[in-house]
Write a structure and sequence with these properties.
The protein contains nine helices and ten strands. The chain is α+β, with helices and mostly antiparallel strands. The protein has two domains: about 170 residues, Trna Endonuclease, Chain: A, domain 1; about 70 residues, no CATH class. Helix 3 crosses helix 5. The chain starts with 9 loop residues before the first helix and ends in a 22-residue tail after the last helix.
Length: about 280
């Protein structure tokens, strides 16, 4: 069955072109959808990103956590949120695949599609690669059956994913759908703790000295509380306690210390290392 053709209005095309021009004019990435433009009920996050040095707009708690985790993955250069897709191309993809393009169902006019995150990473050979991510809560797109199997739900949502996937495939960009199971509250909470020292100024020698002292302390007493390790390292390298904590936060944020982050990192709890 062929669907009635969805069309793009002149107003929508203008908004997309204005967005592209504004990015060129400002010299800085600007999300296509901002918190001010969203009228839906729910939590929104309009934050200043200390790493990218710009305002970031995230449309749910899940997106906020996903952003934090993606931003601080190893070798990540940038994370662009609410990235608009070329509407002419997404319409063509939808027609070719006999899928319904996101639209106003009353007027049948198309909406500009966006991908939640487009991440640029640096590879080992110093070339760059982009990965596109869509975030959705697990129970919005999956259902667990009585026998334990998992099935997809919300066919319209998966049609949108299919259009996005094909759009990025044409650009040789990997496309991934992620949920809160991939970007947990615990991991995001830990990153926010580590971020407190994101701008720490420390030499490579100081970071190495701290790392070796911390690993030695943990190896001797792996069940000790984190604050006990800080006190131990404090005496080993003759640094103030606060400096030691900042070195720990910075080292974890930049993956210089093999600390497991699947549990809350707290001063009064033990930590685990992957050695």
């Amino acid at each position: 069955m062929r669907h009635k053709q969805v069309l793009a209005s002149a107003e929508v095309i203008k908004s997309l072109n204005d967005w592209k021009r504004e990015i060129v004019k400002s010299g800085c990435y600007i999300p296509f959808i901002t918190v001010r433009k969203v009228n839906k009920i729910g939590r929104r996050h309009w934050i200043f990103c200390p790493r990218q040095k710009r305002q970031v707009h995230l449309l749910s708690d899940g997106e906020f956590r996903a952003y934090k985790i993606l931003l601080w993955k190893p070798n990540v250069i940038s994370v662009e949120e609410q990235f608009a897709l070329d509407i002419d191309e997404t319409l063509d993809i939808a027609v070719a695949a006999n899928l319904i393009h996101p639209r106003d169902w009353k007027t049948n006019l198309a909406h500009v599609m966006t991908t939640d995150f487009v991440v640029t990473i640096r590879l080992d050979d110093y070339s760059q690669k982009r990965i596109a991510y869509t975030f959705k809560y697990w129970d919005q797109i999956f259902k667990r059956l009585d026998n334990g199997d998992v099935e997809k739900i919300k066919a319209r949502t998966w049609q949108k994913f299919a259009i996005e996937r094909e759009y990025w495939r044409k650009r040789n960009v990997e496309y991934r759908v992620i949920t809160e199971l991939d970007t947990t509250k615990i991991s995001a909470w830990n990153i926010e703790y580590f971020e407190l020292s994101h701008d720490l100024v420390a030499s490579a020698d100081e970071l190495k000295e701290f790392g070796l002292a911390f690993i030695e302390s943990w190896t001797i007493e792996p069940r000790a509380e984190l604050q006990d390790h800080f006190e131990s390292v404090q005496h080993r390298i003759n640094k103030p306690y606060q400096r030691v904590q900042s070195l720990f936060q910075y080292s974890c944020l930049h993956h210089l210390l093999p600390v497991k982050t699947d549990k809350y990192i707290r001063l009064f709890r033990a930590v685990e290392l992957s050695l």
